[in-house]
Amino acid sequence: MLFAVASCCESVIACRVSPIQKALLLKMVRKYVAPTPTTLAIGDGANDVGMIQEAHIGIGISGLEGQQAVNASDFAIAQFRFLEPLLLIHGRWNFMRMSKAVLFFFYKNAALVGSIIVFSSQSLHSGNPLYDSWIIAVFNFVGASLPVVFMAIFDRDLPREYILQNPEVYKSGPCNEYLSVRMTLRWAFITIIQVLVIYHFSAPALQLGGGATSAFKGLMGNFDREVGDGEGGDMKVFGTTIYSQLIFVVTMKSLIHGEFPTFTCRRGKGEGWPHRLGYTWIGVSWFSIIFYIWFLYMYMLIGRRGVGTFFSFIYVTPHVLNMRSITWMVSILVPTIACILDVAGKLYSNLYYPTQSQIHAEIAAKEGTQKNPA
Length: 374
Prior knowledge:
It is a multi-pass membrane protein. Keywords: Magnesium, Membrane, Metal-binding, Transmembrane, Transmembrane helix. Its main location: membrane. One of its GO terms (molecular function) is ATP binding. The protein is mostly helical. The protein has two domains: about 10-80, HAD superfamily/HAD-like (Rossmann fold), CATH 3.40.50; about 85-370, no CATH class. It contains 17 helices and three strands. Strands 1-2-3 form a three-stranded parallel sheet. The relative contact order is 0.10. The model is unreliable at about 210-230 and about 265-270 (pLDDT under 50).
């Protein structure tokens, strides 16, 4: 009876209720409302502990009634007025960031495994590994993880002021715009396309002229040989080159999906330089690529100075980075082609099937241009 009456109202005020009754009211909402809502409870005293623990999200206010509510809560704030920025700004931003991080990390690992599956179909399922075992093991450490981590910490799709002026943008979270079925399928589809592009565009180029003298060593070293010097590469060179294309594509994709590449901002303009520094994707992405190249050199030195000449990777890094011009050609063309397809799909989706967040982002960008004309 109580639920039937309460469900007909927009707001319900319950007065003089005990702590157990507060918890029971919240439990009733969780049990009978369909679809099951995400509930939030906020309180400042010991009487609110049961309600805070019963809710999906509990917020405690530190005040004169002690710290019991704060100790039992998921989030603590000093005053009730801080609830608005906690939900509208930080809650929305963090949901967007975590959604992107989940999609990116699934994408990264699916692309790595997908390239191995494609190679397996080309090698008659012999079980021969495409990549060196150690570079597979460190993929999530050196494999373009840094831009993704920075995106998961600093990315933001709408300015703070615009969110406070348009609180309806909060609906993007409850509507699950960032982790919807359509968004997940789009990421899965582009993952398959990019894996096929990376492998099938790289493999024919790397398989041609296996014993020919490379352009870098032949031209820059002024060598003139009738017999090739064998710099075409073996399986490790072949696999490491494709591995490099995979890292370059993931890094470029983080640039494409980063909402605010504000590397040209000035101090004191907008939200300020310190707040924008964290998501300056250009610098982060270049540092990630440089770190990967440094890792290849360090891995090579392990074989030269530690393990010995039987450590086969000592020949891979010079061939991949220094001696083979085809590697640099592939490193420019293949990531560009793979990311052009990603940009085309993103553009088509934004033009014909935009989400509410994308529409608000365009409005916010237009308003920002009008306020700060060039």
